[in-house]
TrEMBL record:
This is MOT6 protein. PANTHER family: MONOCARBOXYLATE TRANSPORTER, MONOCARBOXYLATE TRANSPORTER 6. The gene is Slc16a5. Residues 20-451 form the Major facilitator superfamily (MFS) profile domain. GO terms for molecular function: monocarboxylic acid transmembrane transporter activity. Keywords: Membrane, Transmembrane, Transmembrane helix. It is found in: Membrane. It is a multi-pass membrane protein. Residues 206-237, 460-480 are annotated as: Disordered.
Amino acid sequence: MSRGGAAAREAAKPQDRGWAWMVLLAAVLLQGLTLGFPSCIGVFFTDLQHEFQASNSETSWFPSIMVAVLHGGGPLCSILVKRFGCRFAVMLGGLLSGVGMVSSSFCQSISQLYLTAGLITGLGSCFSFQAGVTVLGYYFVRWRTLANAMASTGVSLGFTLWPLLSQYLLDEMGWRNTFLIFGGILLNCCVCGAIMRPVQLASGSLQSPKPAEEPGRRAEGAQLSNGASSPHPKLQQQSRRTVCLQMLQKYLAFDIFCQNKGYQIYTIGVTWMMMGFALPHVYLVPYAIQNKVEERKAALLISVIGLINIFIRPLTGLLSGHRIFTGRRIYLFSLAVLLCGLSNFICVISAEFSVLIIYCAILGIAMSGIGALTFQVLMDVVEMDRFSSALGLFTILESITLLIGPPLTGLLVDITGDFHYVFYNSSFFLISAALFMVLSFCALEKKTKLKEASKVPLDNSSGYQHNEMATDPQPESQPPPAVMYITSI
């Protein structure tokens, strides 16, 4: 290989410099527009109830569907990215988000909001966010960890700004016109997607579908179609079943869930935790308004949580990366979940604005720990070559509990007429999840040590696998995974 050819290839690589930093800026904006957006829904909760004469449970389905689809649409986004590339997925997501919110401004019933703002906007936000995070893997190699950390600050900025903007627009022009304006704002995801042009290396595009794969797919399809006239229909059926199983194993790692005890415990714990995690985001503003807190001040509460996240989340990420926490991040994560659960009792004691500010400060610190550690812990318990698949199943399971948690709690509030049950429920799920994960991992660690002491060989697939490779930069010769289902909490 000539030196001139090597220099040409090096010059063709755009990673870690030049346009990559514009892409990072677009990713920051994308995360603020998508993941930060659901934080403002609580501002409209009371107005939507009055407009549609809906109960707490009926109204809470709207943000629940949005958040659940945002988190659980990862596998669909993966297929879209592999087929059309990251830029197309981001721009399609922006279009869907904008159309969803514009349509929401004309809704005549709460059930129509489930479809427009819940499903369409949620799916669009999922496409834009996850494809936007994926493209960072193509543009950054040496500084990939730093780029992802910087991009995540967009979530905190969104948490801070969306509620304040929402309350201002709501006071000035009502919820329908506000949703119409939100549709225009979310269309800026398309602008961010346009910035994320495909990465062109000397060997070709990393984001475009590989042409070599298409003939293989056509040949595979031809075999299946020819199988219809084959004298062996059982072989054709087995072939189709094998393809389906391979697809499920690729995008939803059920084999890892059954074999890897650490992944199993962590997935169950986080899924259970999500039943209570989103409740304060949905009900805090209505709770404050019901207790005579001014609407502008009530909206400020969510912004306080986002403001604290801006500063605490990066510090938590740096702290957890210290070698003293190697293999112990699950306990740090559980501590953050426990603090989040205990903080809810502050709201039960008093609903004064000054007390709620203290609550939001403590909740913001705990949320920063949860958001910074969720996927670091997952990288500890799953081998990196299966991380994308494991994360696909992980996000789908947590999206189920994110979907049903707020409506079930809203039903309880409708029956009892007491908003305190929101925080009782949240505390129950968070505290029980934290204790479950701590005790289970302690038992698993003890069992592992006993096996090592007795010199019984451990099956790597069933033990608590620790992997620190996630913090190291990947070699430039290896392209990043086609898509990573990354969500932020």
